[in-house]
Amino acid sequence: QVQLVESGGGLVQPGGSLRLSCAASGSIFSIGVMGWYRQAPGKQREFVAGVTSGGTIDYLDSVEGRFTISRNNRDNSIYLQMDSLKPEDTAVYYCNAARRGLTLPTMRIRGGAYWGQGTQVIVSS
Asked: 20 to 30 Å CA-CA from 22: which of 74, 77, 81, 125?
């Protein structure tokens, strides 16, 4: 089993920045692709960004150029640097990890097996 714990959410003004972190524990050797999803009130959960162990990255169109995902393969931790935040970025952000073998395109569609508990991001003046 894999446990994921997010941190770094909070309240920020439009145009501001936040950095989310996700720490993995447990059977981290079994982890393949990792990424971030978000869910805004009244909306479905959506893919935000994903990264493979080899460094291939994919972003949701609306965050590309503003968000940066990074990964530490030694401990399978990932980060999401969020700049130029907008009110529409307000959501609960979830860390996600897939078992080895799941591709990034597939993870983008249906997510991996492991989820964190989520961290709230509020962008408001």
From this structure: 125
Name the residue type at position 71. Answer: R
Q: What is the pLDDT of residues 55-111, one digit of tens each?
A: 999 999 999 999 999 999 998 899 999 999 999 999 999 999 999 999 999 999 999
Helix (H, G, I), strand (E, B) or coil at 104: helix
Spatial separation of the C-alpha atoms in residues 69 and 49, rounded to whole Å: 7
- Look at the block and give the residue holding tokens 């291939």: 56
Cβ partners under 8 Å of residue 104, min gap 6: 33, 35, 50, 51, 52, 56, 58
Q: Are 90 and 124 in contact (CB under 8 A)?
A: yes
Tell me the two tokens of residue 66.
């503003």
| 8 A C-beta contact, residue 69 and residue 35 | yes
Q: Quick one: CA torsion of 7, 11, 16, 22, rounded to 10 degrees?
A: 10
